[in-house]
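Appendix B. Extra example for self-study. Work through it before the problem class; the solution is given directly after the inputs so you can check yourself.
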Amino acid sequence: MQNLIHDKFSSLFGGSGEFYASAGRVNLIGEHTDYNGGFVFPGAIDKCMMAEVKPNGTHFARIYSLYFGEGCFFSLDDGAEMPSALWARYVYGVCREMMGRGARIEGFDAVFNGDVPIGSGMSSSAALECCFAYALNDVFQCGFPLLDIARLCQSAEQNYCGVRCGIMDQFASCFGRKDQLICLNCKTLKYEYHHFAPEGYSLVLIDSRVKHELASSAYNERRKSCEKALAAIRSYHPELETLGECPRVWLEDVRGLIGQDDFMRAEYVIAEQGRVLDACDALERKDYRTLGELMYQTHFGLSRIYEVSCPEIDFLNDMARKLGVTGSRVMGGGFGGCTINLVSDSVREEFISETRARFKDKFSHEAKVYEVVISDGARKL
Ligand code: GLA
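Solution. Structure tokens for the complete assembly:
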């Protein structure tokens, strides 16, 4: 990938720059908990976005994306027009957020490429944001600590791309480490690494290749439901700061006072919070059966209570159960994308080939399969 990027860079701009990368992510368990101040359990993967970057002495960013096969050009002056391509808005957003926090970002040339698939729930957007933020922070010596990089990338996504996302994806992309999952408390941002290289098991992602147009507005709606439920509970328990910390019995106090949908969303979040902590314990004990069972429970919650699944994804989850997969669930925001599966070596081959065949029979298009390894996050190469 690095050679391809460099060939394009030298033919477009001449000379050479520095190389940076940041990773896509998986999340073992803890979905839709990040924006509720709860726990998540993600890790960076061996798929990344990579860029060669060099200052160009102007006030303009000139960026070519091998990934999308097109370039973009934007001014770094205040009030400059936002580029129209979505990928370019991620980079533009990162620049604006950095400058808004006092960084002096000047003109630069860049070429990037990547192997994080888009729209499959592996956070290609966070990988792109974090790759550029990490690169510009280094090239222009802005001095932002890694946590600020994750935060400003989250803001870029919220303010320039319209998704009111939590911090999980950007945090995992920045803080990921080889063979380590991150148990992150999204309220305090305290985190712990947990070794994850389970012998005899692998992580297999099955991408349904379904991407629903309404995914980002439905995501924002879920978030609103959680906010409504929290506000109602707080009228009885003003000390409650986040839904993630709410005891289940407090939710009962508002049953009938909030809409049924809002109630269900909160119910899911509170249960999921408990599952993440149980999953961390199970992993420490190498109890993969319990861990896997928790993943199935999360899927049930996401499908029936939080309602962010779809027929293709539910089908993949059923297939996993039938074929003896240890744990399986929809990953990321939902409404398509992929399932994450904890698969023992003894069933892996059959699981992959049977799932491929039966999915194609049922939905008339191919699912894609990715075997991923927990790897390093943002870095200079
Ligand atoms: C998306 C968001 C994350 C998180 C997940 C759901 O990936 O970007 O912040 O909310 O959905 O867990």
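Self-check: The longest helix spans residues 260-284. If your reasoning did not lead you there, revisit section 3.
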